Amino acid sequence: MFVLQVATAKATQLLWYPRLTFFQAAQKMEQRPILLIVSQFLFYVPVALLMIAMVEGKYHVPFWRAIRWNWPRSAGKFLALGAVLLLGLATLESLLPMPKDTPFDRLFDRPLDAYLLALIAVTLAPLMEELFFRGLMYPVLARHLGILWGVLLSALPFALLHLPQYGYAWAVGLVIFAVGVVCGVVRAMSQSVAASFLVHAGYNATQMLIQIVLTHGFTRMPKSLLKCF
């Protein structure tokens, strides 16, 4: 994964910024949504292949059954829970010193880039994150340490993963940690990673819809609610 990330940054330097150093080109890559998405995709692919290889190679059971991808009967209920979670955490955000401008917010400066990132935010990003944190990590932790620690310790790296996008602001990390805890509780109670995915996707989708309305299609006013992809 590291090699792929470096290769993407090098390609960025050669194709778009030949006069910049490698590290300067890598910083530029983080400011271009399409390059960031390509880089993220190159990160997701080996993670997904490694998870499948480990589960099916070691335990000899289908991957989706092993991680408990059980699609719930009332999918709308979990999507609605994600929306309610966003609105509930908005109260917490109002009490915390949330950053006014972050590197991630600037990715939404252009409408086309914003819509592309919004699409990723409600599909691929929550899918991969739930497969890894609630599908693979949580059951291992819960089996050895108990459900409570499984929920908390799978939510912690989930929050830390997002911190660089928000300038390492601890207040944002606390909000994202809370989202991870709720997704973990849903995973534990429903015995379904699909259910936690729906909560996560509903949370992100509500964020995006609010932003589309408030910014008139990502064209006006700063983005201020973009938390937790």
Could you give a quick summary of the protein structure above?
This protein has 229 residues and is mainly alpha-helical. 72% of the residues lie in helices and 0% in strands.
Number of strands: 0
What are the low-pLDDT stretches, counting only 5+ consecutive residues below 50?
none
Biggest sheet features: none
* Annotation field: number of helices: 10
Can you walk through the features of this model?
Helices cover 72% and strands 0% of the residues. The protein is mainly alpha-helical and 229 residues long. The protein folds into two domains: 1-63, no CATH class; 67-229, no CATH class. Helix 1 (2-15) runs antiparallel to helix 3, helix 3 packs parallel to helix 7 (124-145) and helix 5 (75-95) packs antiparallel against helix 9. The radius of gyration is 18 Å and the shape is globular.
Essential attributes:
229 residues; mainly alpha; 2 domains; 10 helices; 72% helix; globular
What is the fold's blueprint, element by element?
Layout: H1 2-15, H2 22-29, H3 33-59, H4 63-66, H5 75-95, H6 111-121, H7 124-145, H8 147-162, H9 170-190, H10 193-214
Helix pairs in contact: 1-2, 1-3, 3-7, 5-9, 5-10, 7-8, 7-10, 8-9, 9-10
